[in-house]
Structures are given as structure tokens and as C-alpha cells.
From TrEMBL:
Residues covered by the Glycosyl hydrolase family 31 C-terminal domain: 661-748
Descriptive protein name: Glycoside hydrolase family 31 N-terminal domain-containing protein
Molecular functions (GO terms): alpha-glucosidase activity; carbohydrate binding
Ranges of residues in domain Glycoside hydrolase family 31 N-terminal: 78-293
Gene Ontology biological-process entries: carbohydrate metabolic process; N-glycan processing
Family: Belongs to the glycosyl hydrolase 31 family.
Length: 890
């Protein structure tokens, strides 16, 4: 959203419109001492060897010392842990028994407690002599190896040729700068422009190489506006000026596309994938600034040579080595393994999966009412209306401007009567005003972040002089959560939810984690407000590992340009791959005025984003969907209707992400891991396992080249036409829609009646779209709960599996026996795509009645295809969505 520029200190400029992103205002690698030092090291520079290897407390432990320790450098302590499902954890730190000057920061509250339940307590290890190594069991398929000299850690397969999967320090670039005391070194401060960063314990950076074997590409490490498959940043064929991928949470407004520059969040998790169809992953739990190089083939004398290996260099300013190796081998295995460490996505309320309308700012209560009524007037559904910073009293959060919003509770209740919600913004900068109750309380209780002199930090942001709550403290986070009670947040109601913007601020080594703790505290506060009965909705801009447990995020201050529409897809794919599936980009671009064609195309793509919100800067022209002429209104309305039609499918996918960690939005290779044509494709994407979407990213385009993977057919969502898999098709891309396809062999649940909001669809009947494969078979799932509470955790849900085989459609319960929820909703229509014969009727059991069958054009909600093939539709079979039944095609 609005501009916040943080370099090494907290500094917020008060005028966004006078600023534009300037590369020179941010440090390059050459201007960052730890990065420059790490990049200058040569392969094999590490002289550490592993000694004193033993088992302690279920872990393999060892000392790491230089081979020729003439300088009497203190040893480091290595600890290797093994967890179920192919997870290995490697930690390296200074030896605390030798009393270092201080303890290095270890990031709390990210690794989920349940991980310890999966720990495999090691009792022994095997030894190998060539080279000397210690080997421990990981799973039936994998083992972990600690090579002693030179020191190296890797995971390999246990059978066959014992293929390596992931390794650390195979290229000998490991370096760990130990803490010092004054007089022991000369690197005690760093300067950039006018800022000086003091280092009372000297340099404490860490760097090492990580190698991925049998890999074609690596992905992940958000947040960057660049391609999904990460490009090499160093080595042959790469310009010397190319920067590493930076992980440093910053507010970068109007950010450039195709740049390795770090944006609003940092997730040091990388996934590899290769031509064998196998994937692996590596995660470094560290909150300090980080830089990561992807090294081009041939970067050193030992790389290349026909080996499908990708080397990477990981560099951090501080922290410890706390890393996780994920053995895979399938892409979904890797994301599940990562979710076992950092948690799965929170289950959203149903309303949050609908369309959100936002602007900086809707002016007053009259403006809110008019926008709301215009959606109804133009038959456009939406679920949430947002208020930005101007709704407050002088930019004091938890307040309302009494002149513009004199009756906030009544305003919210009017929206709630239609099943709609409101979201207000709460940023981390607190106005330093002695008459402001929040500032007064935070000051008196000592809850602000302190500066180097021990005083409350005083920065400058939208309210003027501002301070920041110390979110690292659990006690203070609990206090912050209490601010969202109805008593403390006067004017709030149960239908009001929260937006955390500009939460990148940081202090010292916890820089990248500040927004994570702010998001956590706000989400927990809404749970407290609802007495544990109401699922929270909190949108955050800053991200960190574990963010997925607390709500949604968006990609920040994009621009109304075609390239920003295009880059939104690799950005969202990367976020989903690294755990954060509930994500989206501002429809139309936050900055600038999109031409109608761009805005329409953005809605058409955005209808498939997991988080679907239109948003704009206050200096832009108003851009609600009805302001661009009748034809464009119709096109945007159709795109939004498409989203609402597919809400049952999206909600089912969100449940899958909540249980397994597998994202809603997926790269093609996650579903087709051996199809090499998909590995670098980041303009098309899968929604679940059943839908493939190809955006249109160029002005004036009326055709699109679409690669459809796999050996089975695909069905055009618009007209039911069939296209073969495994080839590229030139498709029509008229203004009405973008190419989207249903995969043969899948069943997609829909709701086809148009309503004003998702709440009003609650009792509507379902449509099942069955896309038959070459064997005339298909299956799919449907998940239903109350859409709002935590009762699903206690078994209050429906989970059905629909299977079509041998001419019979069966509905089966796949929820556990203790799960129980009833629904009166009926299956209204069953559409069969690709049925090979023309049946006369369908027999429904156990009702022992026949259902009506018709042949006709495909319908998408209330939209009828203008051309295409006739499809078979079973109408009104009379079966309930929560019951077992079969329908036999006669």
C-alpha cells in the first residue's frame, strides 16, 4: 500500500507521491560487507573438519574445527536431527560452554510443536571410511551423511547408486564468523549513505553452499518480482553486475518486475525439480538479512560435466545455522514436509474466498453505501468492503473519523445484513500523541521497541512521530491482541476484520520476522475477540515462514501495467510453493490508471487468485467495475461470477491446503512432474488438480498459445470442446474470457445461482462437472463446513468423494467416523464432459427413481456457451450433498 522506506533503521516518508523506487537508495551486495566477503570466497576455502562424533539426546552431534587450528579458533557445535517423512534438521552454532560474548538469535514460534512428535530419536550411526563419514537412517528410502574431512552434510538415497539429493558445503564455501570483543577485530560498524550500523560484537555472518542433484531448476525464496524458475545470478553467461536474490523485508512501491531485489517478505525456502520428476527442498530458519546466489553451470572447475546439479550460495548477516533438508521425492511431498515444520495454511472463512473491494480510501459512510448499492444495481457479487487509513481519527488506529464515519457500527450492520463484511486497516506505527489512549498505554507499560540508548524508538510515518510495538515479546503480543476486543476497539462489530499493512519494520537481527509477529498477534487478537469461536481474517503484506498459519497476504504496491499482471503469476506460484497459498495481487494495479482492456484481463486472471481483491491508490481514478462502460462492466461481472460459481471448489482446495500444505494455486509441474515442458512455464497455472488457466498478458491479444500437459484430454471451460494433452494449442482469446480448461478425469463442484454474496449462496444447490478421461472415469472431492467457526476441528464437516466409473456416479463419505455435519443442499445438475454414448435416462439409488437427462450447450453458471459441443446433463436427480448415493447411466 502506501510508501514505507526502511533501510537499516525505521524510517517512513510522509509523501508517497513525490517518491519513486530508486535502486541507489538500497544497498547492493558490493555495498553489503557480509555479502561481498561471501561472494569473494573460492571453492574449497572451508577447512573445517568434523570431530568427536557421537549420539546425544537422540541427535548426532559433532565439533567443527579448522584442520590446522593454529589460531586456536573455538570449535562450532553441529547437531543433526531426523524427523519422520524424510526431514533432516542441521544446526550449527557457537559452543555455549565456551561462553561466547552473547547468544546468537534463534527464531522462536515458527517451527510447530507437532514436529517434535515426528522426531526419530537416533540411537546409533554407521561409519564409512572412504571418505570418513557418519551415516544415520532417515527413512526407508533415504539416509543422512556427515562427512568428516572436509566437513559436508548431505541426504542420499539408500538403494541403488545412492544418489545424492541435497547437500551442504559440497563446494567448500562454508564460513561462520564467530562473535568477538572489542580489540579482537576491526569490523565494528558499517556505513551506507548517511547511516552507520554499530556492531558491538563484530561481524557475525554465515555463508555456505547448498547443492541440489538431478535438478533442472530451483524455485522459491520469495518475495521477488521475477520469474518462477530462478535465474542464475553468478557464473558463466551472467553479467557481473547481477545481484543475488535478496531476502530483506522492505516496502518497495512501484517495484520493478524481473528483479532479484527483495520486497515485503522473506522465506528462505528453496525447492528443486528435475527431469526425473523428483523434487527436493532446503529451508534456513533465520530472520537476519540474507542474500542467495543461484550459480550458473560452470561457475567453478568441478561444476557441470554432465551432472544435473544446481549449486547455490546462501549468505546471512547473522543468526545460526538452523536448516532443514527435505528429501521429497514428489513435489507435493516437499511442500508437505515443509508444512510439517512451519505449519499449514489457516482455514479461511468462506466469505474471505469471495471478492473484496478496496480503495485508499472510501471517503465516508455515504461513499460506502453507494459503492455497496452499485454492486447490487449491476448484479455483481462481492463479500468485503475495505477502509484504508483515512477512516481513522488523525491516523490513530482503533479509532474512527467522527465527521466521516459517525456511525461505524450501523454501517457494518447494514453490510452484514447482506452477508457482507468490512475490513479496516491497522498498521504498526503508533502515533506519539499523549492524548492517544493506545500510545499512552504502550508508553506507560514499556511496550515499545527501544533504540540503542534504551529509549522508545521514535520514527516518522503517516501519523507523524511514531513508535512501534515490540512484537517479539509474547506478553506484549497478548496485550496487542486485546486491543481488538469490542470494548477496546470502539465501533467494531463481529463482522469487522483487519488489514495489517506496512508491517515490514524491524529491529536488529529480527528484521524479517517483525511483520510475522505483528500478523500473529493481530490474528490471535481476533480469535480472543470471538472467544475462540470465530475464524480470524487478517491480511498482511510482510511475510515470513509460518505466516500461512495466520491469514492472507498480497503482493504489495504493484502498478497498472501489463508486465505487472504477468509477473503476478510467478509471484503467487512462488508464495504457494513456500507455504503461503492464501495470496493475491491488487486487481488493476495499485498505482496508475489501468486502461479498460488491462483491467478486464486482470479480473479474468484474478478470478482464479486464491485471494481476490481490487485495490487502488488514492491518486488514481475511481475504478469500480461499473465505471468503464456497459460492455466492460459485463466482462468484469462475468469474471467475478466465474469466481463465485467455483467457490465450492476453491473452498475444498483451501481445506486441502489446511490439511496437507499443498497450495491452491500450483505450477503445472506439481501435477505433471515428469513433463519437462512445464518446468519453466509461469504464465499458466493449475487451480488444484482439476483446472488449468492461461492468462492473457499483452494488449490487443486475441489468441494465446497454451501448453496442455499430460496424456489425457482437456475440456474448455467455455464450451466443452476437447483438446489433447502433451502439445501446445493456439487458442482464441476473445475479450469475453481467457483460456481455462478442466482436466480429464476430474470432478469439479460448483454453485451456479448468482447471489449478492457467498453468504446468500449457503443453501443453494450444487452442480457437479464430470470431465471423463479415456477410460470414461473421473473423481473429485467436496468439502463443506459452517464456513466461519472452528467447529470443523471438532469434526463438524462434510467431506465427500465423487467417483464415476463403469457408467455409475457414486458419492462416498471420506470423512473420519467421528465427523458429523448435515446439509439439506441438493445436487441440482450433473454435467458429463466427454461421455461416449447417448443415454436415455439415469437411475438414482437409493431413491429408486429416474432423473431427467438432456443434451445441450455447456453452461458456466448462468452463462451459456455461444458455440461448442453438446454435453450430457442430468437434471434434478434429487440427491443430497451429505448422503451416500449412486446414479447409473442407462
Amino acid at each position: 500500500m502506501r510508501s514505507l522506506l526502511f533501510t537499516l533503521s525505521l524510517l517512513c516518508f510522509a509523501s508517497q507521491t513525490s517518491l519513486s523506487w530508486k535502486k541507489e537508495e538500497f544497498r547492493s551486495c558490493d555495498q553489503t560487507p557480509f555479502c561481498k566477503r561471501a561472494r569473494s570466497r573460492s571453492p574449497g576455502a572451508c577447512s573445517l573438519i568434523a570431530t568427536d562424533v557421537t549420539i546425544a539426546d537422540g541427535d548426532l552431534v559433532a565439533k567443527l574445527t579448522p584442520k590446522d587450528n593454529d589460531d586456536q579458533i573455538n570449535p562450532l557445535v553441529l547437531s543433526l536431527s531426523v524427523y519422520g517423512d524424510g526431514i533432516v534438521r542441521l544446526r550449527i552454532d557457537e559452543d555455549h560452554s565456551l561462553n561466547p560474548p552473547k547468544k546468537r538469535f534463534r527464531v522462536p514460534d515458527v517451527v510447530v510443536p507437532e514436529l517434535e512428535e515426528k522426531k526419530i530419536r537416533l540411537e546409533k550411526f554407521a561409519t564409512e571410511n572412504d571418505p570418513p563419514s557418519s551415516v544415520v537412517y532417515v527413512s526407508d528410502g533415504y539416509e543422512a551423511v556427515v562427512r568428516h574431512e572436509p566437513f559436508e552434510v548431505y541426504v542420499r538415497e539408500r538403494s541403488g547408486d545412492r544418489r545424492r539429493v541435497v547437500s551442504l558445503n559440497s563446494r567448500g564455501l562454508f564460513d561462520f564468523e564467530q562473535l568477538g570483543k572489542k580489540g579482537e577485530g576491526d569490523d565494528w560498524e558499517e556505513k551506507f549513505r548517511t547511516h552507520t550500523d554499530s556492531r558491538p560484537f563484530g561481524s557475525q555472518s554465515i555463508s555456505f553452499d547448498v547443492s541440489f542433484y538431478e535438478s533442472s531448476f530451483v524455485y522459491g525464496i520469495p518475495e521477488h518480482a521475477t520469474s518462477f524458475a530462478l535465474k542464475p545470478t553468478k557464473g558463466p553467461g551472467v553479467e557481473e553486475s547481477t545481484e543475488p536474490y535478496r531476502l530483506f523485508n522492505l516496502d518497495v512501491f512501484e517495484y520493478e518486475h524481473e528483479s532479484p531485489f527483495g520486497l515485503y517478505g522473506s522465506i528462505p525456502f528453496m525447492v528443486s525439480h528435475g527431469g526425473t520428476g523428483k523434487s527436493s527442498g532446503f529451508f534456513w530458519l533465520n530472520a537476519a538479512e540474507m542474500q542467495i546466489d543461484v550459480l550458473a553451470e560452470g561457475w567453478d572447475a568441478e561444476s557441470g560435466g554432465g551432472e544435473s546439479r544446481i549449486d547455490t550460495l546462501w549468505m546471512s548477516e547473522a543468526g545460526i545455522v538452523d536448516t532443514f533438508f527435505f528429501a521429497g521425492p514428489e513435489p507435493k511431498d516437499v511442500v508437505r514436509q515443509y508444512a510439517s515444520v512451519t505449519g499449514t495454511s489457516a482455514m479461511p472463512q468462506l466469505f474471505a474466498t469471495g471478492y473484496h473491494q478496496c480503495r485508499w480510501n472510501y471517503k465516508d459512510e455515504e461513499d460506502v453505501a453507494q459503492v455497496d448499492s452499485k454492486f447490487d444495481e449491476h448484479d455483481i457479487p462481492y463479500d468485503v468492503l475495505w477502509l484504508d487509513i483515512e477512516h481513522t481519527d488523525g491516523k490513530r488506529y482503533f479509532t474512527w473519523d467522527s465527521a466521516l464515519f459517525p456511525n461505524p457500527e450501523e454501517m457494518q450492520k447494514k453490510l452484514d445484513a447482506k452477508g457482507r463484511r468490512m475490513v479496516t486497516i491497522v498498521d504498526p506505527h503508533i502515533k506519539r500523541d499523549d492524548s492517544y489512549f493506545l500510545h499512552k498505554e504502550a508508553t506507560e507499560m514499556g511496550y515499545y521497541v527501544k533504540d540503542s540508548s534504551g529509549k522508545d524508538f521514535d520514527g516518522w510515518c503517516w501519523p507523524g512521530s511514531s513508535s512501534y510495538i515490540d512484537m517479539l515479546s509474547p506478553e506484549i503480543r497478548e496485550w496487542w491482541g486485546g486491543r481488538f476486543s469490542y470494548k477496546n476497539y470502539v465501533g467494531s462489530t463481529p463482522s469487522l476484520y483487519i488489514w495489517n499493512d506496512m508491517n515490514e519494520p524491524s529491529v536488529f537481527n529480527v528484521h524479517n520476522a517483525y511483520g510475522y509477529y505483528f500478523h500473529m498477534a493481530t490474528s490471535d487478537g481476533l480469535v480472543m475477540r470471538g472467544e475462540g469461536k470465530d475464524r480470524p481474517f487478517v491480511l498482511s503484506r510482510a511475510i515470513f515462514p509460518g505466516t500461512q498459519r495466520y491469514g492472507a497476504i498480497w503482493t504489495g504496491d504493484n502498478t497498472a501495467e501489463w508486465e505487472h499482471l504477468r509477473v503476478s503469476i510467478p509471484m503467487l506460484l512462488t508464495l504457494g510453493l513456500t507455504g503461503i497459498t492464501f495470496s493475491g495481487a491488487d486487481i488493476g494495479g495499485f498505482f496508475g490508471n489501468p486502461e479498460p482492456e488491462l483491467l478486464v484481463r486482470w479480473y479474468q486472471v484474478g478470478a482464479y487468485y486464491p485471494f481476490f481483491r481490487g485495490h487502488a491508490h488514492h491518486d488514481t481514478k475511481r475504478r469500480e467495475p461499473w465505471l468503464f462502460g456497459e460492455r466492460n462492466t459485463e466482462l468484469m461481472r462475468d469474471a467475478i461470477h466465474t469466481r463465485y460459481t467455483l467457490l465450492p471448489y476453491f473452498y475444498t482446495l483451501f481445506r486441502e491446503a489446511n490439511v496437507t500444505g499443498v497450495p491452491v494455486l500450483r505450477p503445472l509441474w506439481m501435477e505433471f512432474p515428469q513433463d519437462e515442458a512445464t518446468f519453466s512455464n509461469d504464465e499458466a497455472f493449475m487451480v488444484g488438480n482439476g483446472l488449468l488457466v492461461q492468462g492473457v498478458y499483452t494488449k490487443g491479444t486475441t489468441h494465446a498459445s497454451v501448453y496442455l500437459p499430460g496424456k489425457e484430454s482437456w475440456y474448455d471451460l467455455r464450451n466443452g470442446k476437447t483438446y489433447v494433452g502433451g502439445k501446445t494449442h493456439k487458442m482464441d482469446a476473445p475479450e469475453e474470457s481467457i483460456p481455462a480448461f478442466q482436466r480429464a478425469g476430474t470432478v469439479i463442484p460448483r454453485k451456479d445461482r448468482f447471489r449478492r454474496s457467498s453468504f446468500q449462496m449457503d443453501n443453494d444447490p450444487y452442480t457437479l462437472v464430470i470431465a471423463l478421461n479415456s477410460s470414461q472415469e473421473a473423481d473429485g472431492e467436496l468439502y463443506i463446513d459452517d464456513g466461519k467457526s472452528f467447529e470443523f476441528k471438532r469434526g463438524a464437516y462434510i467431506h465427500r468423494r465423487f467417483v464415476f466409473s463403469n457408467g455409475v456416479l457414486t458419492s462416498k463419505n471420506i470423512a473420519p467416523p467421528e465427523a458429523s455435519l448435515s446439509s439439506q443442499c441438493l445436487i441440482d445438475r450433473i454435467i458429463l464432459l466427454g461421455h461416449s454414448s447417448g443415454p436415455n435416462s439415469a437411475l438414482v439409488e437409493p431413491l429408486n427413481q429416474k432423473a431427467e437427462i438432456e443434451m445441450g450447450p455447456l453452461r458456466m453458471g448462468g452463462l451459456v456457451a455461444s458455440s461448442g459441443t453438446n454435453v450430457l446433463t442430468i437434471r434434478k436427480p434429487g440427491v443430497r450433498v451429505d448422503q451416500d448415493w449412486t446414479i447409473k447411466i442407462l
